[in-house]
Protein 1
Amino acid sequence: MKIREEIVGNWLQRYTGHPLSYFSEHVLLTNFNHYVDLFCEMTGAETIGFDANFRAVTADGITMINFGIGSPNAALIMDLLSAVKPKACLFLGKCGGISDKTQLGDYILPLAGIRGEGTSNDYFPPEVPALPAFMLQRAVSTALRNNGQDYWTGTIYTTNRRVWEHDEKFKNYLRETRAMGVDMETATLFSCGFYNHIPTGALLLVSDNPMVPEGIKTSASDRQVTQNFARTHVSIGIEAMKLIIGRRSTVRHLKYDW
């Protein structure tokens, strides 16, 4: 394999266990096998190839992929998806609330990502903003409203640090950014989606409040959030994608010709 297209095409099949023809033009991304299981329950999708590195399933014109955790994996999946050129990718992830306004189970519809992870620096200079596809985020907003759900908008700070909840200096820095939430993937997905000409959006579920000791995620608290909110999160993601598919709306608002 000598060219990029050959590499990403081969590797997408290797990481997921599916041929390129299996993937749809509309993709839901997640970090959780449970979300993939919920997608299968809701769509009746056939569960094959689940022993692969990235669990993937397709049904109703939508593919869902669990690409794992962290910004390097986020960059990798966007590079690999360039082999099938999706028309839209929506990330259904969880985040920690930074603002005192957010509560467990709240939704955040990011308007931008703050590139604190470093991974995206291999794709763009640091001053290039990490932005979602507006039309995709608008479809998510419509799906939320259709389901009687409210949501916050704002920026998401994306970091490569997994254990920082004890670090008061870093927490003070997060407060200074005025970000609504913190995660490990969103800004990378936005940047690498833009790099690969893939319209990308995100809908994040506030799963913990890590700025205070009693709000740090535990096994018990994470189970409670998953039980109470995960099904609706996935359902809204599916509905948003169906809105895009049904309306045949383009979500390519960014200038890709550079």
Protein 2
Amino acid sequence: MKLHYAGKYSGNLESLPKREHHENSVQFKEPDDMKKFAVIINILGIIITAVLVFTVTYISRENLSFTGIIIALLSLIPHEFLHALCFKKDVYMYNNLKHGMMFVVGTEDMSKSHFIFMSLCPNIVFGFIPFAIFLIFPNLIFFGTLGALAIGMGAGDYLNVFYTLTQVPKGAKVYNSGFHSYWYK
């Protein structure tokens, strides 16, 4: 993996890394622009986070951990770095904090399962594992807080997994080009 920090995303879809399309490629049926995608993932993220925060406070009967909140916010960059580690070639990291997003774009082919793993990897590490620890040990509110917030922050990743599971046939390869994802067989 060769990580390139591309800085603040300009809003110009044409500026994102692209590749030549495979002759049989099919674009994912997904939002056409970053703003529409950001609205969807922010709404989804707020709903997920609200449900999980309620769960943490209900189970623990205590307030959220301030340290857990800070660590969850600080996990944004490591979250994207874990995505990047799943690529073998060049991958570009952008921030779009105006729309509440950071993201990576790599254009290499991946199997369907590898693409799903790449999408979920940081959510497992920063979200699901800490939240599971909290569910086993409810007095560890730090883990519940971190997990709840990190799971909610992965809403865009879950949308990509949903599109992959519902649109990509078994045995197909998946890749990104610009803002969109594609599959081919």
